[in-house]
Amino acid sequence: MTQDRADKSVSTVARTPSLSVQDIECVVTVPTFKRPDQLLDTLHSLAAQKTARPFAIIVMENEAEAHEGADAAAPLFADGTFNGLVIIAHQRGNCCAYNAGWETALAEFPAFRYLAVIDDDELASPHWLENLCATAEKFDADIVGGPQVPAFEKPAHERWATHPVFAPPYDETGPVAALYSSGNLLVTRRVLEAMPRPFLDLRFNFMGGGDSDFLSRARQKGFRLAWSAEAETQEIVPARRVERDWIRARALRNGVISTLVEKKKRADEGFGRLRVFAKSLALLALSPLRGAARLAKTGSISTAMYPVYVGLGRVMAEFGYANEQYREPEKN
């Protein structure tokens, strides 16, 4: 039976009958869009977690018309195979799906301590959730990130694993100064309760980067960040994502996001926008030297071009360029 919120932006389509909301310590949110088979693989990897912490899953379907992911998952929540609920976020966009899931977690589970995020093209390692929580407790961290290890559909593409688009930003567990992605993330309840709504800025809805912006703002508020190298997920990488135009588009997009996030960060500073523009110009000017150093180290032209495209993206953002890759999911 479908239950709608008062604002009609979110519908609940399935719920585990025996769900004990008061006992849930962790909530795992899984946004999904047109990947029903991969979603089920993700959910089975979550069901296999080795942890004593009671957890529930919230699937956020963002394809409100076909809702293939919700249709595939709903019976398995209704029969107790998976513990939690399936919702439909009717407003399209990456940020809308995340916001719907996080708001639902707060509304449905009054005692949860941790909220984790995993995408529908990822598989969680058996101790993934436990490692994220343990790292938060060990380092008194409010937000913990983990590596999304690329799993390429074609073995010949494994050479791309060290490319900056796919390589994790850190190698070792411990406190870090910045996190960039929500694809493998743990957020404490106190962060969600303190951050303004909507959690993810809808201006990033089809570009991506709403997570980077959220993490940047949380850091500005004084929340502590950490990295858990042991909390691995495997990210399935289709052949499309190692084509040169996709790599180039992602690098440009990363540059655009970097500028937009930094502009928001410096919005209240004197000459803040000018400082961001000056930094973008400097990074673009230095990018050929950085690229040459990467080429000498790796022998990869694509890796060498990455800082050049990021620098271009940063400057292009100053003139209104926005690479909204998520508007055409079949090309992403």
TrEMBL record:
<dbReference type="InterPro" id="IPR029044">
    <property type="entry name" value="Nucleotide-diphossugar_trans"/>
</dbReference>
<feature type="domain" description="Glycosyltransferase 2-like">
    <location>
        <begin position="28"/>
        <end position="175"/>
    </location>
</feature>
<keyword id="KW-0328">Glycosyltransferase</keyword>
<protein>
    <submittedName>
        <fullName>Glycosyltransferase</fullName>
        <ecNumber>2.4.-.-</ecNumber>
    </submittedName>
</protein>
<dbReference type="Pfam" id="PF00535">
    <property type="entry name" value="Glycos_transf_2"/>
</dbReference>
<comment type="similarity">
    <text>Belongs to the glycosyltransferase 2 family.</text>
</comment>
<keyword id="KW-0808">Transferase</keyword>
<dbReference type="GO" id="GO:0016757">
    <property type="term" value="F:glycosyltransferase activity"/>
</dbReference>
<dbReference type="InterPro" id="IPR001173">
    <property type="entry name" value="Glyco_trans_2-like"/>
</dbReference>
